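#struct-queue
[09:14] JT: dropping the first one here, sequence first, then the structure tokens:
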Amino acid sequence: MARRDELGTPRGTPGGPQVDPDLFGRLSEQLARFLGTGRYLAMQTVLVVVWIGLNLAAVSLRWDPYPFILLNLAFSTQAAYAAPLILLAQNRQADREREEIERDRAMNARSLADTDFLAREMAAIRVALEQKADRDDLADAVARLSATVERLFDRDRRYP
């Protein structure tokens, strides 16, 4: 019976470490934003100038002689990690833009439906106003009614 209880409980349930699934994505976006700044380019340029200057000038401190293979290796490693992180950040941005486009599309559909409804309501109001009696219609009806009343009075006067 104890065996069933172990199998019925999935691994990683409460008690284990909780990791935010978007943490790595947010960190990659922050890093991509930093790598695209002038501050980063200035810092990297200063680092390269200092590196090359120390390796050329200080004979006793040369840890990376002239072809600067170690510096090249550092830049290659940086590029190997930076490129996928930048792509991840771009993918996340594309996902956000896709969701925003879907929200805009849904809002546009609602606006179109509201506009269609209002157009139909305005058309119904116009039709109702066209069927409404105006001043001329009332004047004609009053004139006919007056004529009918006069005929009735005339008839009553002739046949008392």
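[09:21] JT: and here's the second one, same format:
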Amino acid sequence: MSTETKNKKLKLWELNRVSDEAYKIQAKNPIVIVLDDIRSLNNIGSFFRTSDAFSVEKIYLCGICACPPHRDIHKTALGATETVEWEYRSDILELTAELKQQGYAVCTVEQTEQTTMLQDIHSLTDQKFALVFGNEVNGVNQQVIDASNYVIEIPQFGTKHSLNVSVCAGIVMWEFCKRYI
């Protein structure tokens, strides 16, 4: 039996990641993340870590959402709270109106009567997106859905009708980021 590897796993220092300072000034994908009453500190940390990975412009924490610094957010974010720009906003409807004025298409990730399936987002002609993710139990507030340009749905084929919100975020962010690579 040979001990030679065919596809060597890279060590962290071999990944050639940018420094925190370089990341902060690099061009970002024209995507902002809006969290609507996300209660789990681990989910919030996951949003920061995934947002860093996909180089989004900013995270908005809205409503009843914990904010950094917090050890439970940090535990999952692994330092991404220091690299990803973020802001707390109490009024999500005011924020979504501002984002629309700034040229963002507001895309709520939810299951509604009229959705754009995630695999069909290539048909959206907008250039900048605000992706709204909702509370772990109740989802996105209906008023926010009503104020959105689009409702995006991830197709699911099993017996469950939802995904963990941070898992959902990773899937959706990747699909939107593919527009820019």
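[09:30] RK: nice, looked through the second one.
[09:31] RK: Strands lie at 29-36, 56-62, 86-89, 104-109, 116-117, 128-134, 150-153.
[09:31] JT: good to know. The mean pLDDT is 96.
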